[in-house]
User: Fold this.
Amino acid sequence: MREATREREFREYAEARQGQLRRSAYLLCGDWYEAQDLTQTTLMKMYTAWGRLHRDGNIDAYARVVMTRTYIDQHRKGRWREEPVEELPQRPSIPESPDLRLTLRDALLRLPPRYRAVLVLRFWEDWSVEQTAEALRISPGTVKSQSSRGLSRLRELVGDRMWELSER
Assistant:
């Protein structure tokens, strides 16, 4: 009976949060298929710890920590999936007529994984410096410097295009 309750509670959580987790994963990796894999890996890791998580609370924070650490670990170890192609697809550096959100997303995808993870947690998930530092196992000072450098790099990538789009 207890196992059935555990299964039901986890299933309900996963169904309710899968979309949000996948959107956050997409911001980290920039590919919907990789985002789906990252989401599934996150949920799988959460399932193994579900009994403890359910008792301790703050399940959403744990999910984001697991997702972010998994993403960084995959890229640190060179395990992300790349398939060689004969010709690279032509992708404009800044789309011609997208809205501000798409322009920022494209610029975000050009950042190194660590900067991207810091910016997603700090500004998309609205985490504090301390929460971000704990999740990524880095110091608060590192979070601040990587936030600053990441935002600076975003400004370089977006340039005047962001201001043009925001004035529309």
